[in-house]
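Structure (tokenized):
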């Protein structure tokens, strides 16, 4: 395989995903002094100017309000679940399912990126709260897998290629439509597996907080909603937590797998890697609310600037799309149904066998 041109190569900060030139600071300063500005540097400057002009409400307030609204939906949801009327009970189930999705998908994702606060201490607190208590997963494993692997090595075979979501032994219909419903059961078990080798304090903390989150919902269903048996309460928890797990799995694979994939030893610079290996889905009010813009219609912007909140990704979207178009770089978008059809018909190629490595040489 041919080597990727040297001018396309660069490292990246594992925590933020920001560009770190492979030629070192001296080369960066040399280019800057010569009036040369890389594509990523120029786009970053444009986006940072927009961020600086934005208010706190735009940067963090809107997303924080959506998360607060999700928590405020929980009391009426528990009360509705205590109704003997099928319509009201169903409304309570739906309300709790939506609230849980917003909190665990959108909230945990923003918390893992530190997008909910400018304070490092609060960033750590929100990550533990949303990922461990609400999401029943290990905060350290979540950040390690998502930030330091997926974002740092997006679409790199064996590192950040979304392989965690692949279960090649499952038939396509089972994988796409049935297996995701087991996520509420699988998630805490996977969390326990990730704790192996960590300190006793971290293991105890994670186990206690995951248990606290699960038991709190169970206790409220018994004592507030009035469920008469433990089995019925557990079944309700499973339904609410699994309600939107199918589209969640779809979103995680649709926006990366099937696009261009890269070798660990030969990869393009960040802006080429993200524009060729990331795809946006169209706006959808329900999915935008539950998963956040950064996971749906602003995924390209999110991978280029992972520190931005959902609302800021939406705000800089016109800037990013215009810039990439002007520079003749791909700005990939596709519909949900279109991607689902693609994966259903090419399941063996995309999800069972390893996708072929893309040859980037010659792409301008």
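Design, position by position:
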């Amino acid at each position: 395989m041919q080597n990727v041109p040297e001018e396309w190569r660069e490292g990246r900060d594992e925590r933020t995903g920001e560009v770190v030139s492979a030629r070192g600071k001296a080369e960066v300063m040399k280019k800057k002094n010569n009036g040369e500005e890389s594509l990523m540097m120029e786009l970053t400057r444009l986006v940072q100017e927009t961020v600086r002009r934005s208010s706190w409400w735009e940067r963090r307030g809107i997303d924080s309000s959506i998360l607060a609204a999700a928590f405020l939906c929980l009391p009426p949801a528990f009360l509705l679940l205590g109704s003997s009327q099928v319509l009201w009970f169903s409304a309570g189930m739906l309300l709790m399912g939506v609230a849980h999705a917003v909190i665990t998908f959108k909230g945990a994702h923003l918390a893992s990126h530190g997008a909910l606060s400018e304070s490092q201490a609060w960033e750590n607190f929100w990550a533990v709260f949303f990922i461990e208590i609400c999401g029943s997963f290990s905060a350290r494993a979540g950040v390690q897998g998502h930030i330091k692997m997926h974002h740092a090595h997006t679409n790199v075979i064996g590192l950040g290629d979304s392989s965690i979501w692949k279960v090649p032994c499952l038939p396509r219909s089972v994988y796409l439509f049935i297996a995701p419903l087991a996520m509420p059961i699988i998630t805490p078990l996977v969390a326990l597996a990730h704790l192996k080798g960590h300190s006793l304090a971290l293991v105890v903390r994670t186990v206690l907080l995951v248990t606290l989150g699960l038991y709190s919902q169970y206790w409220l269903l018994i004592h507030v909603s009035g469920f008469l048996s433990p089995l019925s309460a557990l079944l309700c928890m499973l339904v609410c937590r699994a309600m939107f797990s199918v589209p969640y799995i779809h979103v995680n694979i649709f926006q990366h797998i099937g696009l261009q994939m890269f070798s660990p030893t030969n990869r393009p610079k960040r802006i080429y890697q993200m524009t060729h290996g990331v795809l946006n889905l169209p706006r959808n009010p329900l999915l935008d609310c539950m998963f956040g813009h950064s996971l749906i219609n602003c995924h390209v912007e999110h991978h280029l600037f992972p520190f931005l909140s959902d609302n800021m990704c939406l705000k800089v979207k016109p800037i990013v799309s215009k810039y990439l178009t002007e520079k003749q770089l791909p700005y990939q978008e596709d519909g949900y149904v279109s991607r689902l059809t693609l994966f259903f018909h090419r399941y063996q190629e995309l999800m069972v066998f390893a996708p072929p490595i893309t040859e980037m040489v010659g792409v301008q």
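Reviewer-requested clarification: The CA atoms of residues 151 and 223 lie 42 Å apart. Residues 86-112 form the longest helix (27 residues).
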